[in-house]
Protein backbone atom coordinates (compact mmCIF):
# COMPACT_ATOMS: atom_id res chain seq x y z
CA UNK A 1 0.00 0.00 0.00
CA UNK A 2 1.37 3.43 -0.94
CA UNK A 3 1.94 6.26 1.53
CA UNK A 4 -0.84 8.31 -0.04
CA UNK A 5 -3.27 5.41 0.34
CA UNK A 6 -2.31 4.97 3.98
CA UNK A 7 -2.84 8.66 4.71
CA UNK A 8 -6.19 8.58 2.93
CA UNK A 9 -7.38 5.59 4.98
CA UNK A 10 -6.18 7.28 8.17
CA UNK A 11 -8.07 10.46 7.29
CA UNK A 12 -11.20 8.66 6.09
CA UNK A 13 -11.77 5.46 8.08
CA UNK A 14 -14.06 2.95 6.43
CA UNK A 15 -16.64 3.21 9.20
CA UNK A 16 -16.81 6.99 8.83
CA UNK A 17 -17.34 6.76 5.06
CA UNK A 18 -19.98 4.04 5.42
CA UNK A 19 -21.90 6.07 8.01
CA UNK A 20 -21.88 9.15 5.80
CA UNK A 21 -22.99 7.16 2.76
CA UNK A 22 -25.76 5.49 4.75
CA UNK A 23 -26.91 8.86 6.06
CA UNK A 24 -27.01 10.28 2.53
CA UNK A 25 -28.99 7.32 1.20
CA UNK A 26 -31.41 7.60 4.12
CA UNK A 27 -31.89 11.31 3.50
CA UNK A 28 -32.56 10.68 -0.19
CA UNK A 29 -35.13 8.06 0.74
CA UNK A 30 -36.94 10.47 3.09
CA UNK A 31 -36.89 13.22 0.47
CA UNK A 32 -38.22 10.89 -2.22
CA UNK A 33 -41.10 9.90 0.05
CA UNK A 34 -41.81 13.57 0.78
CA UNK A 35 -41.80 14.51 -2.92
CA UNK A 36 -44.10 11.63 -3.83
CA UNK A 37 -46.48 12.31 -0.93
CA UNK A 38 -46.73 16.05 -1.59
CA UNK A 39 -47.57 15.56 -5.25
CA UNK A 40 -50.10 12.87 -4.38
CA UNK A 41 -51.72 15.28 -1.91
CA UNK A 42 -52.14 17.96 -4.59
CA UNK A 43 -55.79 18.66 -5.48
CA UNK A 44 -57.27 17.00 -8.52
CA UNK A 45 -57.39 13.54 -9.99
CA UNK A 46 -53.94 12.31 -11.10
CA UNK A 47 -55.56 10.24 -13.84
CA UNK A 48 -57.32 13.32 -15.22
CA UNK A 49 -54.04 15.23 -15.06
CA UNK A 50 -52.18 12.49 -16.91
CA UNK A 51 -54.93 12.28 -19.50
CA UNK A 52 -54.65 15.99 -20.21
CA UNK A 53 -57.25 18.01 -22.11
CA UNK A 54 -58.56 14.93 -23.92
CA UNK A 55 -62.06 13.67 -23.21
CA UNK A 56 -62.07 11.90 -19.86
CA UNK A 57 -64.39 8.97 -20.50
CA UNK A 58 -64.63 6.30 -17.79
CA UNK A 59 -62.82 3.86 -20.09
CA UNK A 60 -59.97 6.32 -20.73
CA UNK A 61 -59.58 7.09 -17.02
CA UNK A 62 -59.53 3.39 -16.18
CA UNK A 63 -56.89 2.74 -18.83
CA UNK A 64 -54.68 5.56 -17.50
CA UNK A 65 -55.05 4.34 -13.92
CA UNK A 66 -54.07 0.82 -14.95
CA UNK A 67 -51.09 2.02 -17.03
CA UNK A 68 -49.61 4.19 -14.28
CA UNK A 69 -50.63 1.90 -11.38
CA UNK A 70 -52.95 4.56 -9.96
CA UNK A 71 -55.40 1.87 -8.90
CA UNK A 72 -52.75 0.32 -6.62
CA UNK A 73 -52.16 1.29 -2.96
CA UNK A 74 -49.98 4.35 -2.40
CA UNK A 75 -47.09 2.26 -1.10
CA UNK A 76 -47.06 0.21 -4.31
CA UNK A 77 -47.33 3.36 -6.43
CA UNK A 78 -44.29 4.76 -4.65
CA UNK A 79 -42.39 1.52 -5.15
CA UNK A 80 -43.14 1.47 -8.89
CA UNK A 81 -42.03 5.10 -9.24
CA UNK A 82 -38.83 4.66 -7.20
CA UNK A 83 -37.83 1.43 -8.96
CA UNK A 84 -38.29 3.09 -12.35
CA UNK A 85 -36.30 6.14 -11.22
CA UNK A 86 -33.47 3.87 -10.04
CA UNK A 87 -33.26 2.57 -13.63
CA UNK A 88 -33.32 6.19 -14.94
CA UNK A 89 -36.78 5.57 -16.36
CA UNK A 90 -38.42 8.83 -15.29
CA UNK A 91 -41.54 8.48 -17.41
CA UNK A 92 -42.99 10.67 -20.14
CA UNK A 93 -43.85 14.34 -19.99
CA UNK A 94 -47.58 15.02 -20.04
CA UNK A 95 -47.13 18.41 -21.65
CA UNK A 96 -44.70 17.58 -24.47
CA UNK A 97 -44.86 13.79 -24.77
CA UNK A 98 -41.06 13.42 -24.72
CA UNK A 99 -39.03 11.39 -22.29
CA UNK A 100 -38.53 13.13 -18.94
CA UNK A 101 -34.88 12.06 -18.87
CA UNK A 102 -34.33 13.63 -22.30
CA UNK A 103 -36.13 16.83 -21.29
CA UNK A 104 -34.00 17.19 -18.16
CA UNK A 105 -30.77 16.22 -19.94
CA UNK A 106 -31.22 18.84 -22.66
CA UNK A 107 -31.49 21.60 -20.02
CA UNK A 108 -29.05 20.29 -17.46
CA UNK A 109 -25.96 21.65 -19.25
CA UNK A 110 -27.23 25.23 -19.30
CA UNK A 111 -28.22 25.15 -15.63
CA UNK A 112 -24.87 23.57 -14.75
CA UNK A 113 -23.03 26.36 -16.54
CA UNK A 114 -25.11 28.99 -14.76
CA UNK A 115 -24.58 27.43 -11.33
CA UNK A 116 -20.85 27.06 -12.01
CA UNK A 117 -20.43 30.71 -12.97
CA UNK A 118 -22.57 31.87 -10.05
CA UNK A 119 -20.49 29.73 -7.72
CA UNK A 120 -17.30 31.29 -9.12
CA UNK A 121 -18.73 34.78 -8.51
CA UNK A 122 -19.57 33.91 -4.91
CA UNK A 123 -16.08 32.48 -4.28
CA UNK A 124 -14.17 35.31 -5.96
CA UNK A 125 -16.09 37.97 -4.04
CA UNK A 126 -17.10 36.33 -0.77
CA UNK A 127 -13.80 34.75 0.29
CA UNK A 128 -11.41 37.71 -0.27
CA UNK A 129 -13.87 40.20 1.19
CA UNK A 130 -14.45 37.95 4.19
CA UNK A 131 -10.71 37.67 4.84
CA UNK A 132 -10.34 41.45 4.49
CA UNK A 133 -13.20 42.11 6.90
CA UNK A 134 -11.78 39.64 9.41
CA UNK A 135 -8.31 41.21 9.29
CA UNK A 136 -9.83 44.71 9.68
CA UNK A 137 -12.25 43.69 12.41
CA UNK A 138 -14.33 46.59 13.81
CA UNK A 139 -12.65 49.12 11.54
CA UNK A 140 -14.06 51.20 8.73
CA UNK A 141 -13.18 48.63 6.08
CA UNK A 142 -14.94 45.91 8.05
CA UNK A 143 -18.10 47.97 8.43
CA UNK A 144 -18.12 48.91 4.74
CA UNK A 145 -17.69 45.30 3.60
CA UNK A 146 -20.38 44.05 5.97
CA UNK A 147 -22.77 46.76 4.79
CA UNK A 148 -22.27 45.67 1.18
CA UNK A 149 -22.86 42.09 2.26
CA UNK A 150 -26.14 42.99 3.97
CA UNK A 151 -27.32 44.81 0.84
CA UNK A 152 -26.45 41.82 -1.36
CA UNK A 153 -28.10 39.35 1.03
CA UNK A 154 -31.31 41.35 1.35
CA UNK A 155 -31.70 41.82 -2.42
CA UNK A 156 -33.70 39.01 -4.05
CA UNK A 157 -32.05 37.39 -7.03
CA UNK A 158 -34.83 38.44 -9.42
CA UNK A 159 -34.62 42.08 -8.27
CA UNK A 160 -30.85 42.08 -8.65
CA UNK A 161 -31.26 40.54 -12.09
CA UNK A 162 -33.64 43.28 -13.22
CA UNK A 163 -31.22 45.93 -11.96
CA UNK A 164 -28.31 44.31 -13.78
CA UNK A 165 -30.33 44.15 -17.01
CA UNK A 166 -31.23 47.84 -16.75
CA UNK A 167 -27.67 49.02 -16.05
CA UNK A 168 -25.41 46.69 -18.03
CA UNK A 169 -27.72 45.63 -20.87
CA UNK A 170 -30.02 48.60 -21.54
CA UNK A 171 -27.96 51.60 -20.39
CA UNK A 172 -24.40 50.47 -21.14
CA UNK A 173 -25.08 47.74 -23.67
CA UNK A 174 -22.20 45.59 -22.44
CA UNK A 175 -24.07 42.29 -22.18
CA UNK A 176 -27.19 40.71 -23.73
CA UNK A 177 -30.36 41.11 -21.73
CA UNK A 178 -31.84 37.63 -22.10
CA UNK A 179 -31.55 34.28 -23.80
CA UNK A 180 -28.91 31.52 -23.67
CA UNK A 181 -26.91 32.63 -26.70
CA UNK A 182 -25.68 30.50 -29.58
CA UNK A 183 -23.41 27.50 -29.07
CA UNK A 184 -21.33 27.01 -25.95
CA UNK A 185 -18.45 29.43 -26.51
CA UNK A 186 -17.99 33.16 -26.07
CA UNK A 187 -21.56 34.05 -27.00
CA UNK A 188 -22.94 31.67 -24.37
CA UNK A 189 -20.55 33.13 -21.79
CA UNK A 190 -21.65 36.69 -22.59
CA UNK A 191 -25.29 35.71 -22.14
CA UNK A 192 -24.59 34.04 -18.79
CA UNK A 193 -22.52 36.81 -17.17
CA UNK A 194 -25.47 38.84 -15.87
CA UNK A 195 -27.49 35.80 -14.68
CA UNK A 196 -24.41 34.45 -12.92
CA UNK A 197 -23.84 37.79 -11.20
CA UNK A 198 -27.47 37.93 -10.07
CA UNK A 199 -27.25 34.38 -8.77
CA UNK A 200 -23.81 34.67 -7.16
CA UNK A 201 -24.29 38.05 -5.48
CA UNK A 202 -27.27 36.72 -3.55
CA UNK A 203 -25.05 34.20 -1.73
CA UNK A 204 -21.81 36.17 -1.58
CA UNK A 205 -22.77 37.60 1.79
CA UNK A 206 -23.13 34.09 3.25
CA UNK A 207 -19.53 33.20 2.40
CA UNK A 208 -18.40 36.66 3.48
CA UNK A 209 -19.92 36.31 6.95
CA UNK A 210 -18.63 32.76 7.47
CA UNK A 211 -15.12 33.64 6.29
CA UNK A 212 -14.97 36.77 8.43
CA UNK A 213 -16.07 34.91 11.56
CA UNK A 214 -13.57 32.09 10.89
CA UNK A 215 -10.67 34.52 10.37
CA UNK A 216 -11.47 36.42 13.58
CA UNK A 217 -11.67 33.17 15.52
CA UNK A 218 -8.35 31.92 14.15
CA UNK A 219 -6.59 35.22 14.90
CA UNK A 220 -7.44 34.74 18.58
CA UNK A 221 -5.95 31.23 18.73
CA UNK A 222 -2.98 30.62 21.01
CA UNK A 223 -0.75 29.27 18.26
CA UNK A 224 -1.22 32.48 16.27
CA UNK A 225 -0.28 34.57 19.32
CA UNK A 226 2.75 32.36 19.88
CA UNK A 227 3.79 32.72 16.23
CA UNK A 228 3.66 36.49 16.52
CA UNK A 229 5.73 36.35 19.72
CA UNK A 230 8.37 34.37 17.82
CA UNK A 231 8.54 37.10 15.18
CA UNK A 232 6.88 35.21 12.33
CA UNK A 233 5.88 37.54 9.50
CA UNK A 234 2.22 38.49 9.31
CA UNK A 235 2.00 37.15 5.76
CA UNK A 236 3.24 33.73 6.85
CA UNK A 237 0.88 33.74 9.83
CA UNK A 238 -2.03 34.51 7.52
CA UNK A 239 -1.17 31.81 4.99
CA UNK A 240 0.16 29.05 7.24
CA UNK A 241 -2.04 29.39 10.31
CA UNK A 242 -5.11 31.58 9.83
CA UNK A 243 -6.30 30.56 6.37
CA UNK A 244 -5.59 26.88 6.98
CA UNK A 245 -7.70 27.01 10.13
CA UNK A 246 -10.65 28.53 8.25
CA UNK A 247 -10.87 25.73 5.67
CA UNK A 248 -13.42 23.56 7.48
CA UNK A 249 -16.04 26.22 8.39
CA UNK A 250 -15.68 27.86 4.98
CA UNK A 251 -16.05 24.49 3.26
CA UNK A 252 -19.28 23.91 5.19
CA UNK A 253 -20.52 27.28 3.99
CA UNK A 254 -19.61 26.40 0.42
CA UNK A 255 -21.81 23.31 0.65
CA UNK A 256 -24.74 25.47 1.78
CA UNK A 257 -24.06 27.95 -1.03
CA UNK A 258 -24.20 25.20 -3.65
CA UNK A 259 -27.58 24.10 -2.32
CA UNK A 260 -28.91 27.67 -2.50
CA UNK A 261 -27.56 28.17 -6.01
CA UNK A 262 -29.42 25.11 -7.25
CA UNK A 263 -32.67 26.46 -5.79
CA UNK A 264 -32.02 30.05 -6.88
CA UNK A 265 -31.78 29.19 -10.56
CA UNK A 266 -35.59 29.02 -10.77
CA UNK A 267 -36.12 32.78 -10.45
CA UNK A 268 -32.95 33.80 -12.29
CA UNK A 269 -33.78 31.68 -15.32
CA UNK A 270 -37.24 33.20 -15.43
CA UNK A 271 -35.86 36.76 -15.35
CA UNK A 272 -33.28 36.16 -18.08
CA UNK A 273 -35.44 33.80 -20.20
CA UNK A 274 -33.00 30.91 -19.92
CA UNK A 275 -34.36 27.46 -20.91
CA UNK A 276 -32.80 25.58 -18.00
CA UNK A 277 -34.06 23.30 -15.27
CA UNK A 278 -35.60 26.20 -13.37
CA UNK A 279 -37.79 27.25 -16.29
CA UNK A 280 -38.71 23.63 -16.92
CA UNK A 281 -39.78 23.25 -13.30
CA UNK A 282 -41.97 26.37 -13.40
CA UNK A 283 -43.65 25.29 -16.64
CA UNK A 284 -44.18 21.77 -15.33
CA UNK A 285 -45.78 23.01 -12.11
CA UNK A 286 -48.01 25.38 -14.09
CA UNK A 287 -49.26 22.61 -16.37
CA UNK A 288 -49.24 19.98 -13.60
CA UNK A 289 -46.74 17.85 -15.46
CA UNK A 290 -46.32 15.45 -12.52
CA UNK A 291 -43.61 13.15 -13.96
CA UNK A 292 -41.30 16.10 -14.71
CA UNK A 293 -41.92 17.76 -11.34
CA UNK A 294 -41.19 14.53 -9.48
CA UNK A 295 -38.01 13.87 -11.46
CA UNK A 296 -36.67 17.41 -11.07
CA UNK A 297 -37.40 17.54 -7.35
CA UNK A 298 -35.62 14.21 -6.87
CA UNK A 299 -32.66 15.37 -8.98
CA UNK A 300 -32.24 18.60 -7.02
CA UNK A 301 -32.50 16.71 -3.73
CA UNK A 302 -29.85 14.24 -4.92
CA UNK A 303 -27.48 17.05 -5.94
CA UNK A 304 -27.90 18.81 -2.59
CA UNK A 305 -27.27 15.57 -0.69
CA UNK A 306 -24.22 14.86 -2.85
CA UNK A 307 -22.81 18.31 -2.07
CA UNK A 308 -23.29 17.64 1.64
CA UNK A 309 -21.60 14.25 1.35
CA UNK A 310 -18.56 15.69 -0.42
CA UNK A 311 -18.33 18.40 2.24
CA UNK A 312 -18.41 15.86 5.08
CA UNK A 313 -15.78 13.63 3.48
CA UNK A 314 -13.49 16.56 2.64
CA UNK A 315 -13.30 17.98 6.16
CA UNK A 316 -10.96 15.33 7.68
CA UNK A 317 -8.71 15.64 4.64
CA UNK A 318 -8.34 19.40 5.10
CA UNK A 319 -8.03 19.60 8.89
CA UNK A 320 -5.79 17.06 10.67
CA UNK A 321 -7.35 18.04 14.02
CA UNK A 322 -10.58 16.33 12.98
CA UNK A 323 -8.69 13.09 12.34
CA UNK A 324 -7.12 13.27 15.81
CA UNK A 325 -10.48 13.96 17.42
CA UNK A 326 -12.10 11.05 15.58
CA UNK A 327 -9.26 8.70 16.52
CA UNK A 328 -9.44 9.75 20.18
CA UNK A 329 -13.20 9.28 20.22
CA UNK A 330 -12.88 5.83 18.68
CA UNK A 331 -10.16 4.88 21.19
CA UNK A 332 -12.31 6.07 24.07
CA UNK A 333 -15.23 4.03 22.77
CA UNK A 334 -13.05 0.93 22.47
CA UNK A 335 -11.74 1.36 26.02
CA UNK A 336 -15.26 1.72 27.32
CA UNK A 337 -16.34 -1.43 25.51
CA UNK A 338 -13.38 -3.42 26.91
CA UNK A 339 -13.90 -2.20 30.50
CA UNK A 340 -17.66 -1.77 30.89
CA UNK A 341 -17.53 -2.20 34.66
CA UNK A 342 -15.28 0.80 35.35
CA UNK A 343 -16.80 4.08 36.48
CA UNK A 344 -17.79 6.50 33.74
CA UNK A 345 -15.51 9.28 34.98
CA UNK A 346 -12.51 6.96 34.98
CA UNK A 347 -13.25 5.79 31.44
CA UNK A 348 -13.64 9.38 30.33
CA UNK A 349 -10.31 10.34 31.89
CA UNK A 350 -8.60 7.43 30.15
CA UNK A 351 -10.16 8.47 26.85
CA UNK A 352 -8.60 11.89 27.22
UniProtKB/TrEMBL annotation:
This is ABC transporter permease. The keyword Transport applies. It comes from the Bacteria. Pfam families: BPD_transp_1 (PF00528), BPD_transp_1_N (PF19300). It comes from Streptomyces yanii. It is found in: Cell membrane. PROSITE patterns: ABC_TM1 (PS50928). Residues 108-311 form the ABC transmembrane type-1 domain. Residues 333-352 are annotated as: Disordered. It is a multi-pass membrane protein. The chain crosses the membrane at residues 21-42, 114-135, 147-169, 189-208, 247-272. Belongs to the binding-protein-dependent transport system permease family. Keywords: Cell membrane, Membrane, Transmembrane, Transmembrane helix, Transport. Its main location: membrane. PANTHER family: DIPEPTIDE TRANSPORT SYSTEM PERMEASE PROTEIN DPPB-RELATED.
